[in-house]
Design brief:
Layout (H helix, E strand, L loop, with lengths): L4 H7 L8 E6 L5 E18 L5 E11 L19 H13 L8 H19 L22 E4 L14 E4 L1 H9 L3 H20 L3 E9 L6 E6 L9 E2 L2 E3 L6 H13 L2 E14 L4 E13 L7 E7 L11 H13 L1
Parallel strand pairs: 6-11
Antiparallel strand pairs: 1-2, 2-3, 4-5, 6-9, 7-8, 7-12, 10-11
Helix pairs in contact: 2-3, 4-5
């Protein structure tokens, strides 16, 4: 195969301002329209030609212009933060071919959607590439993220969930078209593989953290008690998610228990994945505001308000430090 005629037209359709439409041939030799696509990448594979002789073929990787089309999940989605654990087994079975091998494009799409459902639930509304919350919500109210295949798709089905990340549109396009896309993609691969390994090792903790600002823009932080794990370190207050809770419910409960105040979560800030010596943490920082109550020291050594620019000079817990760094850059 050479980069001429049709192959060249597919590869260069965007710069030539041409529309790329994908059709598939059905068993009764009819054509089914699959949608408008955009060229993403290609790879070579040895394939037999019409005479049965081996030759190097070009395999195109295409993405739908409406990237959300392939990301809708199959079956009822969990509404709780730890609900991804329940859909994980089905996702790995679909990707590894435990189920009967897909025979049609429709079956393959269904298997991909099962993987996508798990990945979207695992992300909990955060981009697994940059960590920031999804940029907007779908019409259904769910956070909008796209499923990014970190490695090329297998010929007979979708990638394993450990090779797929939920990505915001900016990160997704940057990986495919940006000058630093390969570097970002490799970092994403390491991140997702570690998260999946931590789940297998039963050492992943999903934890919430509150980013609460006062009227002057200062952020609330708290010091962990001396003698406890990460004692004397400062943190964004929050706590471990319990079964059956959403991130919002967890954070509101934890802040009420630890500080005696009622808060309202107003949105997602940043998600950090960090490995400690004996466990891994997926720390979900949420924007919140105080609704009522007075601050009290129920679980912490000290509580204080700090300017965002001063956060990096404070002895924060390692995972919390990543949040502080991102908040400083964002100001």
């Amino acid at each position: 195969m050479k980069w001429e005629r049709g192959n060249k037209a597919i590869r260069d359709h965007s710069e030539n301002q041409k529309t790329l439409l994908l059709f598939e041939t059905t068993k009764d030799d009819k054509r089914r329209f699959n949608g408008q696509m955009t060229y993403v990448d290609f790879y070579n594979k040895t394939l037999p030609d019409k005479l049965g002789q081996a030759r190097l073929g070009i395999i195109f990787k295409l993405a739908r212009v409406d990237a959300s089309a392939g990301d809708e999940a199959v079956g009822p989605e969990s509404k709780t933060a730890l609900g991804f654990m329940a859909s994980r087994k089905a996702a790995f079975e679909a990707s590894q071919g435990v189920a009967e091998k897909a025979k049609t494009a429709q079956e393959r799409r269904k298997r991909s959607q099962i993987v996508s459902r798990y990945v979207q639930e695992r992300a909990m509304g955060f981009c697994e590439i940059c960590g920031w919350g999804a940029p907007f919500a779908r019409s259904s109210g769910k956070p909008y993220l796209e499923s990014h295949h970190i490695t090329q798709l297998a010929d007979d089905g979708p990638d394993s969930p450990q090779d797929v990340a939920a990505a915001c549109p900016t990160c997704h396009r940057r990986i495919h078209h940006g000058a630093d896309g390969d570097k970002i993609n490799k970092a994403a691969h390491v991140r997702i593989r570690r998260v999946e390994e931590a789940i297998d090792e039963k050492c992943l903790k999903v934890v919430t953290a509150a980013v609460i600002q006062d009227d002057s823009g200062r952020i609330l932080i708290a010091q962990r008690k001396h003698g406890q794990q990460l004692g004397s370190k400062w943190e964004f207050p929050g706590g471990k998610v319990q079964a059956g809770e959403t991130l919002e419910e967890c954070l509101e409960r934890e802040i009420l228990e630890e500080m005696g105040i009622k808060i309202k979560v107003t949105g997602r800030a940043l998600m950090v994945d960090h490995k400690y010596p004996t466990f891994d943490i997926r720390l979900c920082a949420m924007k919140a505001e105080i609704v009522s109550g007075d601050l009290s020291l129920n679980e912490h050594e000290e509580i204080t308000w700090v300017e965002p620019k001063d956060l990096q000079g404070i002895d924060l817990a390692p995972a919390d430090h990543h949040i502080a760094e991102a908040l400083v850059k964002a100001t």
